[in-house]
Amino acid sequence: MKEKDPVIPVASPRIQEADRRQLRLVTSDLEAMIPADHSVRAVWDFVKGLDLSSVYASIKAVEGGPGRAPIDPKILLSVWLQGTLDGVGSARELERLCRYHVVYQWICGGVSVNYHTLSDFRSLSEDLLDELLTQSVAVLISEGVVDLKRVSQDGMHVRAFAGSKSFRRRRTLEEYHRLARQQVTRLRKELDTDPAASKRRQDAAQERASRDRAQRVAKALKQMPEVEKRKKSNNGKKKTEARVSTTDPDARVMKMADGGFRPAFNIHMATATKGTVIVAVDVNNDGNEAKMMEPLAEQMRERYGQTPEELLADGGCVSLDNINTMSAKEPRCVVYGPIRASRRGDRKPSDIRSTDTAAIAEWRVRMDTDQAKQIYKQRAATAEWSNAQFRNHGLGQFLVRGFNKVRSVALLHALTTNMTRHWALI
Questions:
Q1: pTM here?
Q2: Can you tell me the distance from the alpha carbon of 105 to that of 41, in angstroms, rounded to the nearest whole number?
């Protein structure tokens, strides 16, 4: 009988298994983990080159004095600029990145940053960001890579944080306001009479929430006359009953790029054709650009002490009133803008009318020339490019409410765009 071959035992594979309960001491070198050519280093260098003396002057904690030292403003500004580059507009998401992402850890350098601090810095820095925008342009002008000889203007509608169903009629807002005031009064009485500490804290939180809602509803009621005025047609009758949002009273329903109507804000930008740098930013809740030509020109004069020699205006801004206003207030600024087609078939748009002022007649003659048409082509290549940068950096919808906070976000995006142009030009 043939003997069987001996059974050779199969050895178990040897592997490295995860042991997540094992305590470890992790040593990391943040400086070595970031490549020398990484964009975050350029962001930090850009921020270090800005004049933040006004922010440091407002810090109350001083050497030898009491109080906890605040976070360096350069860190907070750099986190927001890097976040905008990465398309991150949420303070909570930036807090998470500062904990787990090496790029943001490098910016913080061991300083703990929470979303409250980030959110407060952005919301309360409207004046600072406005000043820094001027600085970013002034540096490029001094280097000779940017000038204000020719500036293009455009606007873009950005979705507001308010929901479409948050808009209410006047009578509904009045009822909400009455109920909110009653609830605030009731909660204040409970807060004063209840001796339980934990219950008092809960009531205090409810009272703050009710008070905030009452304030928002009151603000919505305050803005109702303006909205009702806009809703009236030429014959004095209302087209539809006016409504205002209870979550963001400053937002207005506008027609968006896809043809739909949603709550939004209108961002207006002026971009220098030389250097493609944003030189002025404004925010309103009008659904069109009809009134923004002169305010943007005035803003540039306040920022840089001069107005553009040539303004390439958006078609929505071009009107006979605006041409006359610019001629009167900014006589040295030549406006380039499309002429609307005439309703009469026997008359060309460039034909001078008997009612035209000298400024309008000059504009008609100017826009009929090939030179003016070639100059106006630069508007799309500059203003539309700025709009695209805002979209590429994640500005599809505002995550904040109210004019001041919305304007802070718009200025932050403009500063980020100018920072990237600073890298390219210098």
A1: 0.84
A2: 12
